[in-house]
Sequence to fold (800 residues):
Amino acid sequence: MKKINKILLSTLFLLTGCNDVNDIETIKIFSHLGKIEEQETFNNKFDETKIPGQWSEYGVGDPFVYRFNGRYYLYCSTKNFETGVRGWVSDDLINWEQLTGEGLETGYVSNDACTTTAYAPEVIYYDGYFYMLQSQGGNGHYLLKADKPEGPFIKVKDNFGESIDGSFFLDDDEQLYMLRASNTGIRLIKFNDDLSIGVSKNLDNTQLGGWTEGPYLLKRDGIYYLTYTGNNVISEGYRVGYSYATGELFDRSAFTEGDTILLSTDTDFKGLGHSSTVLGPDLDSYYIAYHNLNSSGGPDRSFNISRLSFSGTEMCVDYASLHNNYKPKKATFIAQDETSLTKENNFILSNIETSNIFTSEYNFTGDNTKFIFSYQNNDNYAYVEINNKTLNFSKVENGQTNLITSESLKKNYDLNKLHTIRIAYKDNKTSIYFDNMNKITTLDTSLAKGKIGYIKSNNTNIYYTAFSNVAFGTSSNDEVFQQKVLANNYYYSSFSKNSGLIEEKINDDDEYGDYFNGKLNSYDLKLSKKDYAIYRMSVSEDGIYGLDFILDQKYANKKLIIQVDENKPIRMTIPSSNDASFQYVKSYIGDINLSKGSHYITIIGDDEIAFHSFEIFKSSASWPKFENDLSSYVSKGAKYINSWKLLDNGHYALAGNRNLMYFGDGTFTDFTLEVDIKLVGETQANTCGVILRANNPAFASNDTMASIQGYYCGFNNSKTFISKCDYNHSDIDISADALKINSDEYHHLKVVIRNNHISLDLDNGKSKLEYSDSIGFSHGNIGLYTDGAAAIYKNIKIYH
Fold:
């Protein structure tokens, strides 16, 4: 796809030429899969109409969502100097009602004296009781207890310290943990059986470059995903990162740092943080609950949710935005109690069958109960039962019962209290959960589709019962994505499933040594020639969208073919990397036209290729072209992020401040920028320059030069440099040259960025730098940027 020069501010976009494919027949998508049904959306800032009874001028900060008996319970921080914890309940994560404990004021789950300024309350259901951790004003933790999720929660342990932001985690081996915030990474603490504090460890690789808070630990398919937040709640750059572990949890070095998964500094959607993760209503998806910052006073915050995607150890948020978020899908079958089930002889069953892939859930009290699934008739079904602390998985075929496997529970559980059994099945793999702990996994038992239900005893009570026809993450294969797609989340149907796709686990084979940068134990999707993967994607407006792929650079110069719906396929070439050191690269491979709404995106192997993920972004039909002497304020085509002055017929950045201004919009990829810059006064510590492909700047009191995403190219009196700025993932002075640069005279700075490569030239060859980034920023804003230096800018020129 060719581009023409674009004069900034022009409303005219021209598109010329596409590499249409004539040697491959267009795949007839619609005749096989039909049109994509439009999804229900929601606004991702939950105001009083969605969550009534919020704290005035404080909102819902530090939200925690807990799922119990098929419903969702939301708790949040208490406004400063107020007493009591407020709560809400929902069936779908979207519509919330106030939650009120017996004898309490409407909307309160506790009014215990220890809940004055109760920060970040979190709850767990643990063998019949609900326990709450909360930190009073951030000065150590109290433990409270209740019989119900609505409370009333009553203090059972006085302040036992451990800082702030305590979070529960119950592992599959029945060990209960607490996690909490610290300056040196998340701290993991074992609870003793009496819920006193036991031994603890700091976890390496769980820090966001400073104070790190708001931990939450999820275990999914044997992998631990630890989310955490930093660094200051009133910063626009408050964000969520994650780390993962695949082995022993209670090990200081267990975790590997992952990516930032939530970050936005947009005016109306910023300061995203303090998250928890919860199973979706479909029993298979997971959602991350967090808050956004409305104002620093209070601080006032709103509740948000976004869906998570997984590929082995890789976890990401596809789309975090204020508008056009897709509502979570419900379970296929739901019975709130026994009255919604059907009695057939000794069986109490659903009125419809699962598919041959399913997740089912049973909530109950009482012993000697059988939990039925794959029911075809009285002589053919499977079941789980709890017998004398033993979880048994059995299958009945032609009236004969065969025990598949058993697993003993380590602790004594009161079965007169409510407990949960959940069963996931796909392709002979069965996982069985007791109270959200994975107790059994088998890989060699075939189960048929069928009804679910119970064989109950005299003291069995049946509560929320449900199933969905998804398991082990297959709900993601049926998702419509909006921005980022992990390769293994291709649309799940026989049409694409039989096309010869291969999911390859990424392993470090030592070929690249220290330069291995793949997401270990995540997955690539491999396509042979003419194999294809179909994805469903949606955009909120008509436009031209760029395509970024993350893949092994051994596929450079190979070709793949993109087909949108049933339009003519387009052949694209994977560009070469300028840095052969690293194995995986992010490559911008070209643009596609998309109209508003949902589309099938088909990726066809023109050569044999494999890729890890791809994402779409709003692009442009043309290259940037702009020129201005900067002698006066730029009224069109520029955005002043903070204050600039005029001096010496140029734009003046004051000393001691970080200054930023943008030109154009955030759609630009490759360009050349030239500008004249004068340092005013001597400085060895502060810098000035330009920033390329920039996004998400933050300017709170604790934010630094690195509190932005983009490539910062510049100088001071002692060096030139190229830095990759990305908050705690920054590489400062990744390419630098030590030399004397005079103040109070203009220097000509020229930077060129093409694909993943940047070159810097100061004063026509006095200093030259080169840098290639493996997985970096492919697009963004063009800006002038300073980190405390006093500097004057003149004569900017941007072109391709």
Q: What stands out?
A: DSSP finds two helices and 65 strands in the chain.
